[in-house]
Q: What sequence folds into this?
């Protein structure tokens, strides 16, 4: 490569970026919009869920349990008079679940037999139903612990005390899980979509033909386009990390250098995919459609960003192994929430490096200084 020609190409591409509002918007405005949208608008937690409570005979034994539900931030307790009223409210979707304390609840609690608590959950939304079921179980365990403390020593009915410990995300905030994965989606958009559109635009405007007629080599053209957008993408990455920590208070338990290194590898993969797409489609509309279908949608759906990969069919799990976003999301969530777990980070980084070399190799092989 001729460093003088390469420097001129980098300067030309940098000036084009500064003059193009859409490129700056994709690199800096789009990450800000997506982070605010997903950080505040999307939550995998269920809070203030309307839950009905049917107490056939209120008494001192039922009131502590109902009070436990009222104190929980997960529930919006609505007292109901009968089981029939609860079923009607459930059918009208006024409540998502209801708890039924039967008339003999106090007698069973004070007696020898176990007291039964009826819980009915609307299973139309299976994810929310599982969350509500877990929250109700947690409230029941809190009530049991309080009941055990009130009993005299030596007569406790519950000799085993459960002390759960949650690793890596003790607060169980879905935001801490979503925001790192969202950074992978943002990097995919900045790298693949932006590069594919910009190069395709040059083909449409005829400026690529002028480059073909110049003495620059194809490798110099690719590197000249790679470096400015690499810097732009890392700038968008830096903005996303700053917002994640300052606005959404997502912890960064790993090393910042490790985060930068893994992000740089993935950005090279995304840029390579964008350059490859632009070498196949020389029209902005076609390049944009291919970039969305091939890069953005898989990164959004099949990377583990939102949906657990282990719950997918085996065929889909196998397909996800060829998606770069899968490995980047895994590394991001590990670095942010767990720290520098090298058995996870090093294999992911190795796969991303191999994919970057593959995409740039194929792009260079397909790119020729001719117009056909």
A:
């Amino acid at each position: 490569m001729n460093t003088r020609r390469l420097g001129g190409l980098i300067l030309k591409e940098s000036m084009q970026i500064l003059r193009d509002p859409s490129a700056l918007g994709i690199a800096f405005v789009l990450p800000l919009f997506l982070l605010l949208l997903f950080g505040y608008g999307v939550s995998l937690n269920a809070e203030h869920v309307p839950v009905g409570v049917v107490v056939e005979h209120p008494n001192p034994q039922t009131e502590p349990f109902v009070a436990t539900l009222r104190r929980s931030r997960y529930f919006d307790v609505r007292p109901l008079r009968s089981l029939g009223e609860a079923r009607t409210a459930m059918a009208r979707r006024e409540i998502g679940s209801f708890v039924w304390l039967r008339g003999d609840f106090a007698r069973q609690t004070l007696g020898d037999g176990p007291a039964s608590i009826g819980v009915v959950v609307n299973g139309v939304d299976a994810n929310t139903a599982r969350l509500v079921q877990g929250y109700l179980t947690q409230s029941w365990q809190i009530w049991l612990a309080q009941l055990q403390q009130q009993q005299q020593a030596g007569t406790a009915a519950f000799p085993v005390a459960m002390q759960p410990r949650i690793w890596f995300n003790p607060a169980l905030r879905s935001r801490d899980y979503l925001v790192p994965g969202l950074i992978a989606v943002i990097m995919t958009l900045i790298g693949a979509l932006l590069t594919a559109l910009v190069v395709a635009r040059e083909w449409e405007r005829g400026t690529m033909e002028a480059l073909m007629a110049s003495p620059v080599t194809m490798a110099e053209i690719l590197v000249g386009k790679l470096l400015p957008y690499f810097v732009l993408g890392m700038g968008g990455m830096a903005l996303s990390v700053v917002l994640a920590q300052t606005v959404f208070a997502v912890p960064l338990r790993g090393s910042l250098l490790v985060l930068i290194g893994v992000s740089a590898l993935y950005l090279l993969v995304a840029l390579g995919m964008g350059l490859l797409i632009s070498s196949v489609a020389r029209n902005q509309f076609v390049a944009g459609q291919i970039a969305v279908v091939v890069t953005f949608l898989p990164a959004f759906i099949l990377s583990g960003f939102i949906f657990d990969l282990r719950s997918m069919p085996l065929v889909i799990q196998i397909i996800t192994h060829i998606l770069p976003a899968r490995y980047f999301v895994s590394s991001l969530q590990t670095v942010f929430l767990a720290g520098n777990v090298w058995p996870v980070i090093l294999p992911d980084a190795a796969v991303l490096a191999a994919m970057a070399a593959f995409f740039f190799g194929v792009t260079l092989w397909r790119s020729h200084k001719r117009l056909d």
DSSP finds 14 helices and four strands in the chain.
